[in-house]
Amino acid sequence: MKINIKRYVVLSGIIISLMSCSKVFDDITQYKSLTPEVVWTDPDYTTQYVNKFYSTTWSDYSKNDAAATEEYGIWQQNAWTAFNSDQMSVSGSGTQAAASFSSCYTNIRDLNRFFENVDKGSYSGKKYLKGQAFFFQATQYFRLVKSFGGVPIIKEVINASNPDPLALGRPRNSTLECFDYITQLLDSAIADLPEPSAPGAAIASYDAFRITRPVAMILKAEVLMWKASPIFCTTPNQTYWQNAYDAVNAAKTWLDSKGYGLYTTWRGKTPPYTAMFYDKTGAKKEWIWQQEFLYPTTSSGGLYKGMRPSNQGGDAEAPSPTWNMVQRYPMADGKDLLSSSFTYNVKTFWKNRDPRFYQTVAYNGSPYIFPTIATALPNPNRREWTFTGSIVKGDKPFELTRGGGFGFLNRKGIDTTLTSNTLEQIATNWPFYRYAEVLLFMAECANELDAHRAEVKNYLIPIRSRAGITNVDGSYGLASVLNTRDAWLKIIMNERLIELAYEGKRVWDIKRRVLFSDFRAYQNLLGVQSTINVPAVDALKLKVARNNTVIVISKLSSLGLSNDDVWKALSDTMATTANSDNLYQQIMTDQIIIGDISRKVLDPWDTNALEAIPSNVLLTDPMVKQSKDYGGDFNPKIN
User: What pTM value is reported for the model?
Assistant: First the structure.
């Protein structure tokens, strides 16, 4: 199933940035001169037809899904307010507005065209193409059902000559019928897709980037979990949860038999939770499905640049963790802030926390090492500064919006080996399914079943052990958890937030489990505003290494000094001071603030877990009825 470059575009034209939604196949002018007979009987052309669905699918799994959570402070402050008020607009601009009827049904129609024609060819490898197409068809319906509940099931090409696929002329199928159909599609995919012989192994005549059997097995398990979850089943259904448990267990059993598992390798001083983003080959043991980038063919710069510090070549610093998210990290022994054997102090909130905290959140004064230029060693003293400052004699030494306005930056997946001038070389892969999530799926399903609840701890311990939690109680902080559904559910969902931070999972977890109460409890998303104590800094009489000038904050401009000079001098001093915590409290004042006081208080509604059918769909296709929660008569619930 290799690609014939002479007859078609190179694969790099298909594997595009997750931030792009361009359609590859439609841009190929060569296609216009081909007859259907030639296309569908030729394995190379048919393969290219299937290839276009990869970019569409990857776009749906991007970080854009994370923007409506406590992970993204700068965007989140009014996200749920917009989610509540904008649902009835023509565009249907809810939290997952990108998953519109139009885009999904365009892909569904194109996939139906594939199934109507693919059997005209008799070449080898056709089975693998069908398996991929079944998988992509399932992802399109799954995206629709996650957003809206039941939707029309279309199995043939409708309005083939009409560029608008919305004129379906079909009523909505029930949500249960849709889940059954998605499951059937994935069963077909599982039957047709090949098995990799070892973690990440390439298969002869089957490109390494393509969907394989275990990916479809995990997606089937996730689909069945959604079917059983509170968003659709307001009353728990043990049969549905048992089916989900069996599907996850089947996927895990297969993965275990093939050598998959958690990535546990240290790369020098870099712990596994971070190292797996750098070790592409080794990480395939855990990264079951990922979008791969390979410089210079492809770059993930557009995906990760927005998360990199602005003074290191980054863009908007938009993925800014909130104080609410920081508080969700346990202490170093795996227990929460109140029950930990370590003492928590809000003034030194960063001390003795879950090691994943330091690998995900950059806070004011935290070590965050980057090289200055490609030929230089990185400065081991570098600290990340997000503090604000006062305007003195025309100087504005510090930006008020560092850390996305919430005082923190995301650092997960950031390639710190690159300078600001070499960011186009970013080739960090993007994970969709990791073995860690399979363990979390197992824990969640087991917790819903009385007969399996005792297993929950066994699925969480390996994740916490790999994270580096201090094993004080013999169970990595889990020994005293009450053996009840609600107690374990709280632990599991928080573990998902921590372990899978910035991987596009949280917003879907909130919707699936209807966790809007978390945000009602927050009321507002909070940040930490760190303000510099100007007299205290001046009293240190810090010298700038390049010219031996003593720093006086109020005279930066007249002294020919810059923000960088202040940041570097403070970093060097913090790194070489015996008690840096005491020094920090002398020169900085931290205050917990509302991230953006101009935004409304967060007040999401449980009834908005599912979105409204966009108004333009209702106008175009009157057979598609609106959901009950939005004034219609269609019930998207299963029970």
Answer: 0.90
